[in-house]
Write a sequence for this structure.
C-alpha cells in the first residue's frame, strides 16, 4: 500500500507525458497533495475548479436517477488531457486523483490503466 506522496510520485514517474498530479478532497476542494504543475498549471487552482466539475456531474446523475458510479472524467484540451479519477473503497470516499497530461506525449489508455493501478495501491 502506498501513501499519498508515494502514489503521486509514482504517477509522475510511471505515466508518460504527466504535467502534474494531485489528490483532491472534493467535499472541500482542497488538494491533499500535489506534484508537478508549474507556472502554467497551478494544481491548487485546478483542484478547486475540478471539484466543481465533479460536484456538477454527481448532481446531474442524481437528477437523472442514474444508479451508477463515476470511474473517471476526461477533459480534452487542444494540447492537454485532464483526467479526474474518483476514488472508491474504504477511507477514499470524497477523493479524486487529478492528472494533467501533455497530449502529444501521453497515451491516454495507458494513463487510465496506470492511474487505476495507483488508485488500487493508495492508502489514505
Amino acid at each position: 500500500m502506498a501513501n499519498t506522496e508515494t502514489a503521486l510520485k509514482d504517477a509522475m514517474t510511471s505515466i508518460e507525458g504527466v504535467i502534474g498530479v494531485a489528490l483532491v478532497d472534493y467535499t472541500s476542494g482542497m488538494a491533499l497533495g500535489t506534484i508537478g504543475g508549474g507556472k502554467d498549471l497551478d494544481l491548487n487552482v485546478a483542484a478547486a475548479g475540478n471539484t466543481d466539475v465533479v460536484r456538477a456531474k454527481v448532481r446531474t446523475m442524481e437528477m437523472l436517477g442514474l444508479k451508477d458510479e463515476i470511474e473517471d472524467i476526461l477533459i480534452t484540451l487542444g494540447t492537454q488531457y485532464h483526467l479526474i479519477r474518483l476514488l472508491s473503497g474504504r477511507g477514499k470516499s470524497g477523493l479524486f486523483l487529478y492528472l494533467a497530461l501533455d497530449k502529444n506525449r501521453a497515451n491516454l489508455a495507458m494513463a487510465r490503466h496506470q492511474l487505476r493501478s495507483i488508485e488500487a495501491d493508495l492508502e489514505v
Notes: Helices lie at 4-14, 43-64, 108-121. The chain has one domain: 4-121.
